Amino acid sequence: MAKIFCIANQKGGVGKTTTTVNLAAGLAKVGQRVLMIDLDPQGNATMGSGIDKRQLETTVYDVLLESASVVEARVKSEKCGYDVLGANRELAGAEVEMVALDRREKRLRTALAAVGAEYDFILIDCPPSLSLLTLNGLCTAHGVIVPMQCEYFALEGLTDLVNTIKQVHANLNKNLQIIGLLRVMFDPRITLQQQVSEQLKSHFGEKVFDTVIPRNVRLAEAPSYGLPGVVFDPAARGSQAYIAFAQELVEKMPPASALAGASPVPAPEPMDAPPVAIQDPNGL
Ligand code: ADP
Ligand code: MG
After folding, report:
1. Measuring CA to CA, how many Å separate 190 from each of 2, 120, 248, 279?
2. pLDDT surpassing 70 at residue 245
3. Domain residue limits at 42
4. What would you report as the CA-atom Rg of the chain, rounded to the nearest whole angstrom?
5. pLDDT of residue 263
6. Residue 284 belongs to a domain
7. Relative to the CA of 215, which ligand 1 atom is closest?
8. Substitution candidate for ligand 1 out of 18, 193, 225 with most atoms within 8 A of CB
9. What is the total count of domains within the chain?
């Protein structure tokens, strides 16, 4: 069965979509079968995977409202090597339309059960909010990957995300764990970023991925070509980092198929809320 991960952080512009599409492409490059789900009505992950959101007849919206199955709504991104369950602006309406429905936070989970065996990884790009859409992602997932920039206020809001994850874990999805924090848009020339990065490591230890994604203009250019950086320019530093991250994830979290006959991998512990001190600029 597929490992299902949400890429979440309720801040906008922190690299969620960039991480989702590049990790999907990186995993595909190392031989994994991947489904990428766009849960953001902006549809950036859809467009950034070479799928024109305006041309889609069925999207994740139809899946959430049960007017289409995942099999009917997914499309293959030939260029990127993974499948896409896309989104467009219609998805913004799902939030309101689902409020009155039963099992509203478990609709994605129910729908994905039919395709779980076809993939090694399912990645979900979440919108920048703790909305019903994000909740659908969290109720479905085994884990959350949190991309973050190493800045003073990067951890602002992480407490909310951690508390939401704890609540979902306690009430709706016993499987949910924080898989790790991914340092993105990193510039080693900025001393402050190095300091925050060190603090993250010392506070969260194993929960911080070893791979660091550098700030790299090729990653920012790639979406205008409708491609993840990993496909657009595989040799770029940022692309290489995402491929290394895909490998780190595969090693840390072997897909279920690789576990046959092996001893089970212990699930990571839920992560505690960050200490207040790390948000305090004077504490640095
Ligand atoms: P989110 O999905 O969290 O809103 P995005 O992935 O859309 O964030 O990233 C925000 C902006 O930062 C985009 O313009 C994106 O191209 C750019 N960006 C993301 N990661 C990097 C990086 N490592 N280097 C340079 N630019 C980046
Ligand atoms: Mg995004």
Report:
1. 38, 37, 25, 18
2. yes
3. 3-261
4. 18
5. 41
6. no
7. 24
8. 18
9. 1
CATH number at residue 96: 3.40.50.300
For residue 168, report the distance from its CA to the centre of ligand 2, in Å.
22
Query: How many angstroms separate the alpha carbon of residue 238 from the centre of ligand 2?
Result: 17
Ligand 1 atom index nearest CA of 18: 6
pLDDT in tens, 135-190: 999 999 999 999 999 988 777 778 888 899 999 999 999 999 999 999 999 999 99
Verdict on whether the full-model pTM lies above 0.85 = yes
Q: Find the residues whose C-beta lies inside 6 A of ligand 1.
A: 12-18, 44, 128, 184-185, 213, 215-216, 219-220, 223, 238
Asked if residue 161 is part of any domain, the answer here is: yes
| Inside any domain, residue 279 | no
User: What DSSP element (H or E) covers 145?
Assistant: strand 143-148
Ligand number nearest CA of 10 is 1
Q: Give the H or E element holding residue 84.
A: strand 82-85
Q: Counting Cβ atoms within 10 Å, is residue 194 exposed (0-12), middle (13-18) or buried (19+)?
A: middle
pLDDT of 260 over the 50 cut: no
